Amino acid sequence: MVGGLIRNMNGDWIIGFNKSIGISTPIQAELWGIFEGLQLALSHNIERLQCQTDTVEALNLVSSPMAKCSPIALVRPIAKLISKQWMIEFILIRREANAAADFLAKSTVISNEQAQTYTEPPHEIKSLLHRDLYGPAFLRT
Q1: What was the pLDDT predicted at 30?
Q2: Helical H segments across 44-137, by residue range
Q3: Residue 110: pLDDT above 80?
Q4: Are strands 13-19 and 48-53 parallel, antiparallel or unpaired?
Q5: Which stretches make up the RNase H type-1 domain (predicted)?
Q6: Considering its fold, how many domains does the chain have in total?
Q7: CATH number of the domain within which 85 lies
Q8: CB atoms near residue 133 (< 10 Å)
Q9: pLDDT of 139 higher than 50
Q10: Burial of 140 (0-12, 13-18, 19+ CB in 10 A)
């Protein structure tokens, strides 16, 4: 399973997704999440994107100058998406700042073939969205 979400520059939810990818390694799952997220952003005509990952290896693979000819098959279509006419910045984040995407990745998917999209955040994810954006101290009162 993979999952992710797209927020606007203020951190507000735009759309989320998850998809079953079958049995995979952690790096394959992270690359699938990046691939699905980029496709979703492109389909929503997002012209500027900050793609966050908590996996150094995935970040290095997709941001490499050699990504278009990578021996890892999934890196090549990601490189093709990156080369489209849009601005993409890849950044490494702490795993703890990625709880909302992690929740989506572990949620049930209706279809095994296509990504399930969420135009509204699931109710269970709302506190995670705030925590990812502002940190755990924001939730303490």
Answers
A1: 95
A2: 56-63, 75-82, 99-105, 126-134
A3: no
A4: unpaired
A5: 2-107
A6: 1
A7: 3.30.420.10
A8: 14
A9: no
A10: exposed
Residue 141: its pLDDT value, please? 39
- Name residue, tokens 């279509």: 77
Tell me the two tokens of residue 25.
Answer: 């390694």
Between the alpha carbon of residue 123 and those of residues 37, 73, 86, 126, 128, the distances in Å are 21, 36, 32, 6, 10
Contact 26, 33 (CB under 8 A): no
Long-range CB pairs of 108-116 (<8 Å, 24+ gap) are: 109/1, 109/18, 109/19, 109/20, 111/20, 112/20, 112/22, 114/19, 115/17, 115/18, 115/19, 115/36, 115/39, 115/40, 116/17, 116/18, 116/19
**Rounded-to-integer distance, Cα 63 and Cα 41, Å:** 18
Q: What is the pLDDT of residues 50-96, one digit of tens each?
A: 999 999 999 999 999 999 999 999 999 999 999 998 999 999 998 88
CB 102 within 8 A of CB 131: no
E strands within 20-140?
48-53, 87-92, 116-118
58: nearest Cα among 103, 88, 99, 26: 26
Q: Indicate the DSSP class of residue 110.
A: S
pLDDT score recorded for residue 138 = 46
